[in-house]
């Protein structure tokens, strides 16, 4: 039997502080950050993560996180999911503010290590009929922010001249060129992906005279135009193209809401070399020659494009080829884009 000894009583504050330090140390020692190989971001889900009509996240969830436990991240709009292979993902929310604030909350969570992570920013989008079609999937070469500048009404400028002027001070965040080697590698892995299509989309395409608009779904690259404003019609489409040319980017092929803002957040912490933006077109950003912009924005029953379910499937079909290659050949990807 061990002898007992009397110990002088410690002040309560000192005892509590010591306990807190001990608890913190134990928690830190027992929970090394989880390394994330790939992070997949979606912007919205329609209902549940599985078993109902699929939004942007469901196909990813069903492929990678069926058995994963949801993890609440303070400041993020939705739970985070991770599998044992190091693939994590979440729904970030629609628009620049919701998506970028969720991304920052996740990146700053000390339970996860994003130092070697490859990011796939995915979702549905629009496309100009001269550059894409319903069901098409695109890897971004450039991200342009549509909103950072000055605009004025057409009657307040000279006829035929642009209605947009960049605002000084945003040079570093209004346009991002994504890693060309990464885009090339993503295309090499996914360009021949068999894509889904629908009869409604096939019929809808025939309303447009553009050769691109009439194509069956395919995979391509180009600039993605990011804006909280749902710009629409041939006039604003021409303005968006003017902006890409002004910034020295490629032709714009996608209109979406979030990627430039999310990229700004990732760039502050980890740079842009490991960011991929992947979008699938579910609508044209302007009407056909026989309808006004307002008619296209508010179509009569039976006059919608269709193909939404097929497009969200195509996004995951294309993106998973790159995600799986990263995981399966992590020794080649960990330090950068493979060169072989």
TrEMBL record:
The keyword Transmembrane does not apply. Pfam families: NUP. Keywords: Signal. The keyword Signal applies. Residues 1-27 form the signal peptide. InterPro entries: Nucleoside_phosphorylase_sf (IPR035994), Pur_nuclsid_perm (IPR009486). GO terms for biological process: nucleoside metabolic process; transmembrane transport. One of its GO terms (molecular function) is catalytic activity. SUPFAM superfamilies: Purine and uridine phosphorylases (SSF53167). This is Purine nucleoside permease. It comes from Halomonas cupida.
